[in-house]
Amino acid sequence: MNSSVRFNCANIFDQALALKSKLRLKLTYKLTAMLFYKGVTLEIVQTPDATECWKEVFVNAPPNCVAQLLRLAKRLADSGKLRSPDQFNNEDDGFWAIKANCGLRAYGWYHSSRRGVFVISHFILKKKQKLSPSDTERMRQNRRQYDPDY
After folding, report:
1. pLDDT higher than 70, residue 146
2. Helix (H, G, I), strand (E, B), or coil: what is residue 30?
3. pTM passes above 0.70
4. How far apart are the C-alpha atoms of 105 and 11, rounded to whole Å?
5. The domain 35-146: what is its CATH number?
């Protein structure tokens, strides 16, 4: 996919906020999320950004790595917990990481007003242990777009 033509929800959201401030309008903005997995305890949904990331991760990550992350997400949705911090770690500001051993991560948060919903912000195949500031900002931006009550 050509990156210059790529649809970017963040830019649209920023433009809408700029327009809101110029016109002094009350703007309600809510993204819809796609169901990732519905378990016994939790429903895991993913933002549009996560959907785009998933396509890239699915192509670039080793198949056993993708399978491990899917098993962890299923276990989280079915039981409501994972072994912490090996598999599920609180990163910062209410953000969590579902962690496969190979470096594949699913970053997300618990929805503020929908009980039993975990929202995946984006996926990344990490090369280092520390969470990068760009990933933290990306999660904050996705949370502002999807979960305005947070």
Report:
1. yes
2. coil
3. yes
4. 24
5. 3.30.2310.20
